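Quick one:
INPUT:
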């Protein structure tokens, strides 16, 4: 019948379009079977390159004054809650500063701890004008500490040639600034030597 010829022509054309790599003889051979398995050729997906987000350069950060503390915010009472949070952070880090705690274990953890919010005092310095400065650390950079004093004065104290003391729950630790010339993020991954020459 005419209908069956149309159907046969349609099926042949459909198989030819669906399986372009197959020859006519092979398609004809497939039509003699009861089941036909169609091949699938997925389109190759082009991978889109992810664009890396660019941060600010050091010059842009300076121009935008991202790290500058406004004069009206330079008051020690504003940062006392930060100090309380820091004390709790250190207690949790050291599992409680108990009297029987081993000093070298606490010292090792303090070397890698974040010091933003800690109250420190300059105990020794090659520059006598720095000795006695006490306050809360507001910012730590590679070479300096920015400290707010009780007199609401923001002091920029270099780490080099200075020794800082830090007291918490009766435990006093000393920071030798010359051995501490790292950013806080770099310090957390550094392995400090337990013994070595100590110098201003």
């Amino acid at each position: 019948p005419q209908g069956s010829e149309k159907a046969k022509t349609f099926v042949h054309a459909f198989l030819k379009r669906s399986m372009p790599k197959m020859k006519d003889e092979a398609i004809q051979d497939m039509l003699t079977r009861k089941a036909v398995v169609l091949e699938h050729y997925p389109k190759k997906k082009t991978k889109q390159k992810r664009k890396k987000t660019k941060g600010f350069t050091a010059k842009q950060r300076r121009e935008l004054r991202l790290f500058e503390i406004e004069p009206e915010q330079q008051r020690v009472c504003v940062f006392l809650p930060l100090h309380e949070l820091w004390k709790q952070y250190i207690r949790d880090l050291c599992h409680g500063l108990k009297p029987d705690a081993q000093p070298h274990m606490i010292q090792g953890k303090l070397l890698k701890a974040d010091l933003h919010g800690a109250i420190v005092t300059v105990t020794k310095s090659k520059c006598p004008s720095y000795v006695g400065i006490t306050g809360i650390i507001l910012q730590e950079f590679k070479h300096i500490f920015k400290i707010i004093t009780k007199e609401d004065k923001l002091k920029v104290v270099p780490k080099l040639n200075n020794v800082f003391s830090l007291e918490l729950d009766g435990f006093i630790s000393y920071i030798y600034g010359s051995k501490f010339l790292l950013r806080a993020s770099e310090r957390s991954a550094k392995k400090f030597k337990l013994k070595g020459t100590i110098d201003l």
